[in-house]
């Protein structure tokens, strides 16, 4: 028997400790059936740990999780899923080698009674139903494509379709808008709004316009502590929330003036570091990008923009040697022909910080040690960064040296991915969605770090869905549409017509435009 009124989910003083670290401290939240509840807060606030506790992948060290009034602390993720808990993850959790239809069919199979599974499979019923699910989600065109080959935004939509297929009563959405273009975000909002009223939604997201659009209640966390819960209007007006979520804590990267040993030459004297001509690349013999031409100069930042599926990640992966380049592509790095093998490309001075970070199960200190040990010794490649340089530029890592990468917040993981790349001594640094999943204050820190890196003569190429961030950083812009260059311009020369064309290509509604 419990002392609480009926609720689908109730967290009763939940806490989670990792040694001496309080990831969550005495959190109590109640969600009635049909609620649309959001959890926001800075990176490292404990939001993803909270989701793990609710989903059953993390066991609380204190307090209780009640589902339908029953204590489920001892139940794992599978048992909670059978009781109606579904979730998505910070990075799309789909089976990359399986087709989109096969991913959905697995979710259908999980919901089918065991006695009927083999018969359904023999008759192909799951495949037919999977295609119907994909059609309803607007994904029918991707049914037979391997999930790993799908554009990032489509993979996110597929993961949501998979999560919804078992018809969960409680849906946990962890950063569902991360890495999505404006059109995908608008579609995500409509999908959440269209959910049946009996489905309860709990979401984490740094896209505050999305939060205000879909949530009826918002909870704010900081350092594992509850700061406030209220309506979106109440949270927006809360001065404590603004202080912890929208201002930058700690020492900003800009406060490290001695990181720059020499001023970068004037624009007219800057060396061309990377020359790309007629770039063509794709998957399984099918080109995804065609005839791309651009240059990257010493100390300058090039923004590679476009909707999801336009080819941005393909370009970065192809330059880094992860996706084959095909004729008539010609790429030179530092005046020499770009190698073909990924490890040789990295040693030549072109380094990728991939979307999703792709860190190892090592501590921060171990990541830095391995990266430094494997860096090129060629004196003609980029500046040699020391560990002290890295910790001065990204001071948050200095307090996390003994922490494993999986225990870091999303922002700290992004900083570690930056650090690992810088220790490789890049001439050209490729950044794929560096602001993805980051709180507003941390986006400011990452922005300053990128500017500081470029100021030391590194050429930077940034693929980014955050348009305001990209334009604030970039010297030049290349916009892709369906794998082709649709717009090229220097940001200093941007006119009103450039802005209108850019908004049209990206599906962005200009501020002040009529709805």
TrEMBL record:
Domain ABC transporter: 9-248, 274-507
GO BP of this protein: L-amino acid transport
Pfam families xref list: ABC_tran, BCA_ABC_TP_C
Keywords from the UniProt entry: Amino-acid transport, ATP-binding, Nucleotide-binding, Sugar transport, Transport
Single GO MF descriptor: ATP binding
Top-rank lineage group of the source organism: Bacteria
Coiled coil: none
InterPro entries reported for this sequence: AAA+_ATPase, ABC_transporter-like_ATP-bd, ABC_transporter-like_CS, BCA_ABC_TP_C, BCAA_Transport_ATP-bd_LivF, P-loop_NTPase
SUPFAM superfamilies found in the cross-reference section: P-loop containing nucleoside triphosphate hydrolases (SSF52540)
Keyword Coiled coil attached: no
Membership in a protein family: Belongs to the ABC transporter superfamily.
Name of the molecule in the record: ABC-type sugar transport system, ATPase component
């Amino acid at each position: 028997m419990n002392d609480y009124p009926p609720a689908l989910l109730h967290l009763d003083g939940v806490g989670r400790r990792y040694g001496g670290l309080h990831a969550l401290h005495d959190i109590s939240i109640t969600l009635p059936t049909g609620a649309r509840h959001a959890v926001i807060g800075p990176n490292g606030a404990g939001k993803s740990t909270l989701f793990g506790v609710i989903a059953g992948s993390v066991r609380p060290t204190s307090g209780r999780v009640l589902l339908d009034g029953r204590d489920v602390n001892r139940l794992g993720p599978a048992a909670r899923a059978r009781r109606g808990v579904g979730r998505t993850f910070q990075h799309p959790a789909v089976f990359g080698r399986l087709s989109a239809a096969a991913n959905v069919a697995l979710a259908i199979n999980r919901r089918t009674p065991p006695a009927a599974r083999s018969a359904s499979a023999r008759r192909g019923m799951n495949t037919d139903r999977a295609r119907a699910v994909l059609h309803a989600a607007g994904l029918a065109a991707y049914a037979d494509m391997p999930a790993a080959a799908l554009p990032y935004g489509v993979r996110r939509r597929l993961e949501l379709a998979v999560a919804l297929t078992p018809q969960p009563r409680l849906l946990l959405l962890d950063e569902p808008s991360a890495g999505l273009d404006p059109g995908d975000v608008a579609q995500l909002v409509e999908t959440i709004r269209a959910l049946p009223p009996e489905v309860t939604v709990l979401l984490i997201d740094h896209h505050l316009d999305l939060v205000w659009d879909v949530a009826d209640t918002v909870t704010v966390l900081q350092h594992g502590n509850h700061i406030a819960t209220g309506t979106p209007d109440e949270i927006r007006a809360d001065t404590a929330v603004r202080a912890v979520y929208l201002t930058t804590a700690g020492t900003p990267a800009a406060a490290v003036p001695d990181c720059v040993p020499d001023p970068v030459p004037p624009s007219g004297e800057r060396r061309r570091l990377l020359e790309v001509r007629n770039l063509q690349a794709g998957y399984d013999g099918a080109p995804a990008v065609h005839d791309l031409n651009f240059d990257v100069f010493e100390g300058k930042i090039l923004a590679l923009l476009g909707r999801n599926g336009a080819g941005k990640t393909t370009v970065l992966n192809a330059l880094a040697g992860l996706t084959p380049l095909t004729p008539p592509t010609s790429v030179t790095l530092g005046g020499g022909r770009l190698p073909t093998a990924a490890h040789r490309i990295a040693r030549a001075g072109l380094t990728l910080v991939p979307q999703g970070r792709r860190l190892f199960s090592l501590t921060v200190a171990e990541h830095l040690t391995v990266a430094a040990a494997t860096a090129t010794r060629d004196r003609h490649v980029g500046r040699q960064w020391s560990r002290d340089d890295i910790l001065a530029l990204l001071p948050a890592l200095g307090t996390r040296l003994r922490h494993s990468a999986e225990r870091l917040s999303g922002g700290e993981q992004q900083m570690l991915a930056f650090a690992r790349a810088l220790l490789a001594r890049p001439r050209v640094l490729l950044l794929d969605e560096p602001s993805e999943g980051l709180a507003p204050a941390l986006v400011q820190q990452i922005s300053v770090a990128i500017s500081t890196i470029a100021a030391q003569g590194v050429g930077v190429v940034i693929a980014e869905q955050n348009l305001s961030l990209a334009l604030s950083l970039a010297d030049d812009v290349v916009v892709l549409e369906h794998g082709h260059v649709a717009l090229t311009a220097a940001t200093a020369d941007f006119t009103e017509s450039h802005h209108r064309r850019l908004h049209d290509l990206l599906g962005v509604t200009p501020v002040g435009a009529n709805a």
